[in-house]
Specification:
This protein has a 7-stranded mixed sheet with strand order 1-9-8-7-6-2-3, with helices on both faces. A 4-stranded antiparallel sheet has the order 10-11-13-12. Helix content is 38%, strand content 16%. The chain has 2 domains: 221 residues, Aspartate Aminotransferase, domain 2, CATH 3.40.640; 95 residues, Aspartate Aminotransferase, domain 1 (Alpha-Beta Complex), CATH 3.90.1150. Bound molecules: 4'-deoxy-4'-aminopyridoxal-5'-phosphate.
């Protein structure tokens, strides 16, 4: 049952092609053996021990650490180079070029559309509904569009908490969408910001929701953006095996990224990362209160992530003013749905204070 749900949507050739079998996969690694099978250079350079060798594609010890961290079985995980690579993989596995489409709900993370267009696959947008000062998914319309067979929608991307709007969507609504679309398509839930959120993850729903795939990353909550470590989580282990063996590159994860991820998921470092999340959340609340005092700020959208979407007068001018003072935030004012908005990532207390000071100065500038 589980298997059928996901496999039904996989592009036909992926079911039959043979994946690449690397030298490492064929021979394994054993310290007592001499390996002359992978055209590696036998001479390690100083202070770069082990880097002359290709890394294991999905090291079992790290898979186990991910499994414990995310609360799934290691057979339900495929580790990727950031959630970014996970998005490319899903698009590639499910979307037939020039035929299939993905569904997004704008304003949302831009890479869903970019990856689709690279296939090329089409993009159907069912925009978020803006009501009472917050954004929500248009559940009925998503179901309607994605179940219309003429639309050939293979993946519904839901980002929760959503970037750039910041809020999470109700788990019940996401489950309703998954259930209504069973047999029609995959629901890819991007939980890049889940560790910051009160709503929390839907990982516990994976086993009972056969068309749900979840994407996670160590980039944000574990402060590891520079190492590019993310993953695909799916209740269907056959799908995970297919991705690992037939879709991923031969040696996808850099050795240093593997080692660092392992280190970060150790209990001591994880505890520090969790403390930092608390600091970021406290700062997010403080910044919201302080920013709302400004006459220039018209609205701050509710956030369940590590950033705030701020609607203000002359958003672009404010971004430029901050940039002139060496503080870079993201201008979203020219994008549909986030007109007059800027997105501010929550920094350290000192960095945030600098934003507040500059806002104060900006407030007092003579109007142009
Ligand atoms: N999804 C969302 C919603 C994001 O905001 C980002 C990064 N900004 C990504 C995925 C990619 O994250 P990673 O660093 O894990 O590739």
């Amino acid at each position: 049952m589980m298997r059928k749900q996901i496999f039904k949507h996989i592009r036909a050739h992926y079911k039959t092609i043979k994946g690449y079998s690397s030298a490492g996969m064929e021979s394994g690694k054993d310290e007592s053996k001499i390996y002359l099978n992978a055209n590696e250079n036998p001479y390690e350079l100083p202070n770069l021990e082990g880097l002359n060798r290709y890394p294991e594609p999905q090291p079992p010890a790290l898979l186990e650490a991910y499994a414990q961290n995310y609360g799934v079985d290691y057979t339900q995980i495929c580790m990727t180079r950031g959630a970014d690579e996970a998005l490319v993989i899903l698009t590639k596995v499910f979307c037939e070029p020039h035929k299939d489409q993905v569904l997004i709900s704008s304003p949302t993370f831009g890479m869903y559309g970019v990856d689709a267009m690279a296939m090329p696959a089409g993009v159907v947008d069912v925009p978020l509904i803006k009501k009472d000062g917050r954004f929500n998914i248009d559940k009925e319309n998503i179901i309607k569009q994605a179940s219309n067979i003429d639309n050939h929608i293979k993946i519904v991307f839901i980002c929760s908490p959503n970037n750039p709007t910041g809020d999470s969507f109700l788990h019940e609504d996401i489950i309703d969408i998954c259930e209504a679309l069973e047999g029609h398509c995959i629901v890819a839930l991007d939980e890049t910001y889940a560790e910051f959120s009160k709503a929390g993850s839907m990982v516990a729903d994976l086993d009972s929701t056969p068309n749900l795939i979840i994407l996670r990353t160590l980039s944000k909550s574990y402060a590891l953006a520079g190492m590019r470590m993310g993953c695909i989580l799916c209740g269907d282990e056959d799908f995970i095996t297919l991705v690992r063996n037939k879709v991923m590159d031969a040696y996808p994860l850099p050795r240093l990224s593997i080692e660092t991820a392992f280190h970060v998921l150790s209990p001591e470092i994880k505890a520090i990362a969790q403390d930092n999340i608390k600091k970021i959340l406290a700062e997010r609340e403080r910044m919201k209160i302080e920013l709302e005092k400004s006459d220039k700020v018209n609205h701050i959208y509710p956030s369940d992530a590590n950033f705030l979407l701020i609607e203000m007068d002359k958003a672009k001018e404010f971004c430029d003013y901050l940039a002139d003072n060496n503080v870079i935030i993201r201008d979203f004012s020219s994008q549909k749905g986030t007109e007059n908005c800027v997105r501010l990532s929550i920094g350290t207390i000192e960095e945030n204070n600098q934003v507040l000071e500059l806002l104060n100065k900006y407030n007092n500038l003579p109007t142009k």
